[in-house]
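Human:
Take a look at this sequence-structure pair and walk me through the tokens.
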Amino acid sequence: MKNSVKVSINQIQVGNFIRLPVSWKDHPFLFSNFKVKTQSQIELIKSLGIEQVYFDTERSDVKLLDKEEAKSKAGLIKEDGLDELKLEMDQYKQDQIESQKKLRRSIKKTEQQFDRSLSMMRSTVSKLGSRPLNSVNDAKDMVSSMTNMLLSSDDLVLHLMGDAKPGDLIYHHSLNVSVMCMMLAKSLNWNREDIELIGLGALFHDVGKLKIPSNILNKQVPLTKPEQNLIKQHPLMSLNFLKLADTFPEQAKPMIANHHEFIDGSGYPKGLKGDDLDKFSQLIAVVNEYDDLCNGTKTSKAKTPYASLGLIYKNYQKKLNTEYVGKLIKTIGIYPPGSVIELSSGQFGMVMSVNLNKILFPQIMLYDPLVPKEQAPIIDLEREEISIVRCLPVSALPENIFKYLNPRERISYGIGKP
């Protein structure tokens, strides 16, 4: 609160934005910074023995009471039921703390499952050359487990995962694309066979990149034309990787070859158009493009999930299936996990999770300098009646807020249950 001044609590009135000068654990309010909504809140603050608070001029709806007016009103207003109000607020705060602990446990459990899937992905890919049958069967088992979770629960949560290690980037990307393709397929009411098919194809769609020399794949300066052409062959290299795996379903191969093809013919490697692209190819192209935008490539900087969705919606209408783009936005929310946002309360936060049944009300981890980072409050916007004002690029965050929120360098998602 840069534009704040310390004032007497007697000068505060409804509509003022304040910060309490005591530790978060020493008051019953959910936040230390908030806009005063009722006179009872002011009286409760006084009952705690707090004589001065910080007043924020920019975030307040009304001015302070002047000192004479505050003096004349001091002691005149007596609110009944403050003890009951404090008990009620303490209970609500405790409920929210428990809810936060539950969400953190859910994220941790999903992260552990995600790590196991990463390990399985590495093992699966490493077996492709020597034991292709085992490799494909392992992948099928993995996709089947994910499908079971998708189809057995109507209350799934999309969680933001930890950063990828440099050597795991291809696996993070493949899992991201697989999970989101399966989620969209479910939202599109595809049958189980089709959901598993696109999940399996997505897991293997980029394995061809493992055949490209690392000095080209990781090159930090612009690629030469021959190098660009080689990169554009990776979908076909992925298919070559699968030649020995005769149990890999033929129906899943076109989507692997076509995941960079656009319906207007401007994609690669063959420049196919809409009529030449099946529904699997068109769906994986949407998700692959979204994930590439979020996480960046050697030739493009990573964008926020919010900006990536906006870019796809505005600039890819002729390139991507618009029904699938709309379904992506409706499925993961306007503010997907990983989005850095500013709230109507004036606070900053990062979207940690989205309940797929309530995508307009994601769970937000808030920046609060008075609360230890490891105990950062995670709030449900629906319950707090707070709205998102805007989404911010990570570069716009002050250093202290950046370090507290710790935005992910790469965006990865895992699905779990609340």
